[in-house]
Amino acid sequence: MPSLLRADGVTRTFGSFTAVDDVSLTVEPGEVVGLLGANGAGKTTLIRMILGLLPPTSGDLELFGDAPSRAGRARLGYVPQGLGLWSSLTAVENLDFVDDTFGSGTSELPPELKPVANELVADLGLGHQRQLAFAAALGHGPELLVLDEPTSGVDPLSRSRLWDQIHDHADAGVGVLVTTHYMQEAQQCDRLVLMSRGRAVAAGTERDIIGDTVAYEVDSPHWQRTFDVLGSAGMLVTLSGTRVRVVDGSGRAVAAALEGAGVEHTVHEAHATLEEAMTARER
């Protein structure tokens, strides 16, 4: 049985600019694959190719075993960053329009949206709009969900509810490809693909992405001075509260830099976080 989605060495150029460079990934039934990377990493361009809105410059791309097509798109649900809703229609009119388009007639308003069913989308809050976009994407029973920053800008509770929906559909056999900036959401994915400057620089589980990345945590009563000294020494420095952390460096080099600057400190090795590992790889 073919993968729901298979990209093999996909590249997309715009003139002399390469937006996606030799990226490979798959999505199988029942799994959630997270596509991570900073703005401009190439995630949205890759999604546009998956949807058949842009042809790859080179490489192979299959949706349900065939080249992306109108028939293939009818088997997936898509939530774009801009949500894809009609602001001049009400919530229920948006779902009716989508149902007519797919010929399904099965979309249902989530319970949280029923009190605002007849309000214009333009008058709804962002949380309600995102819930509506999910409902529109799910109404025709898709086999694959493609979600581009689906929870951006919503409160933590609404974000958790949307992720409950994602897991419910994955448990039912739906494949999910999701982009996110939230590390807590990335940790809910079965596999991750990290993109940087158009390339896939790491792939696998959270543990695979972190790999042998090491962090050193510095305790000092002068944390601002510590941060400045280590940053000036060219180290990759982050903050966890008032504790300074150095990623992918050397504990000996950290201690030497602080001793040379006369900064009181203690240094110990710590587990690197997913975000720190991503930052180190992007660097």
What would the keywords be for this entry?
283 residues; alpha/beta; Rossmann fold; Alpha-Beta Plaits
Our count of domains comes out at 2
**What's the N-to-C terminus distance?**
38 Å
**CATH class designation of the largest domain:** Alpha Beta
Structural class: alpha/beta
CATH topology of the largest domain: Rossmann fold
Counting H and I runs of at least 4 residues, what is the number of helices? 10
Gyration radius (Cα, Å) is: 22 Å
Description:
The protein is built from 10 helices and 13 strands. Helices cover 32% and strands 28% of the residues. The strands form 3 sheets. The chain has a 6-stranded mixed beta sheet with strand order 5-6-7-3-8-9, with helices on both faces. By secondary structure, the protein is of the alpha/beta class. It folds into 2 domains: 5-205, Rossmann fold (3-Layer(aba) Sandwich), CATH 3.40.50; 211-282, Alpha-Beta Plaits (2-Layer Sandwich). The mean pLDDT is 85.
